[in-house]
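Minutes, project check-in
Item: structure for the 421-residue chain
Input as provided by the requester:
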Amino acid sequence: MDILSTYGFMLIATAAVVGFLMAWGIGANDVANAMGTSVGSKALTVKQAIIIAMIFEFAGAYLAGGAVTDTIRKGIIDSGYFVAHPELLVFGMIASLLAAGIWLVIASYLGWPVSTTHSIIGAIVGFAAVGVSIDSVSWGQVGGVVGSWIVTPAISGILAYMIFMSAQKLIFDTENPFANAKRYVPFYMAFAGFVMSLVTITKGLKHVGLKLGTTEAYLISLGIAITVAIVGKYFINRIKIDEKADRRMHFASVEKVFALLMIVTACCMAFAHGSNDVANAIGPLAAVVSVVNSGGEIAKKAVLEWWILPLGAFGIVLGLAIFGTRVMQTIGKGITHLTPSRGFAAELAAASTVVVASGTGLPISTTQTLVGAVLGVGMARGIAALNLGVVRNIVVSWVVTLPVGAGLSIIFFFMLKGIFA
């Protein structure tokens, strides 16, 4: 207890700095995933993608990031083990933020799309298991995280494959692709509107205080989907094309329609991501502030101080602007060649998987979901369409994320303990 009262301000200041680093890493790595398909398919330029992501990520993180957050992310450790020595939780959370932040910076520099959620979970597991007690870790939760490496990319990959193949059969492989695009694209728009509304409501707006039930969320999403389809059909019907033009011109016109769709889906994904994943940075930071200010009391939920959300939001935006392009290139160009229709299939499949996972409580990484979806689109064109070297590096980066995060946090935990204790 004396440590918290003596070094309280210093501990909070240190946590704020490493929390900002963690948010910076989230921006550099995770946000690039949301925009990577749009850039790779040339629906957006890198500069346009960064500007759009900055606006929607900041809006999601600041407006819908929540006034209250879990002090211990995902219930991965038992707070009961820290009641007698709350300073250990403070040291552990600072160590975890520093470890996860450093790993995200390294991964982003190498262009590896890793999971920010799994980075912070690995770090928390590491300091708790080695520095406190191996029994303090909820190993069942950790097992669920490891299982999600296979389950979520597989689900999103299959969905992306099905969406892309349906567009191929209904539109691109027909005699008159543009006429069929006019007929079928409004249905894709409706599906996208429905899924993106659900993602925004369940992953984004839940933090604002809008307590919508499942039925209400589905009904609102259905209404938005119908509206999007009607408006979309109106604008598509206004597009004029020379019917005598060759098929290549028809394909180009169809891809323009999908490019517009991608921009909308990317905005929704950025907003939902900002509102949801900012907690990976501010959750441990809020835990430190809460424990220090309460004199050692560990609550399940922490009310955020006024400065914490802006800190996380600015960190995400700066990370994206300064370092986000490397991971964007990997997602958008490194795995397989993307066109707007392929990128749209990948983004829609990833969003659909997020909705399914939210409903079932499946632990999920938006990064792994999107990578799986891009792989599914690539597989639709055959294994030769995939850059297997890039895929191998991505899988390796996923596997090492938990142990690297754990190893770094153990080192930093004992350093902090030695400095302050």
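Outcome recorded: The first strand starts at residue 68 and ends at 70.
No further action items on this chain.
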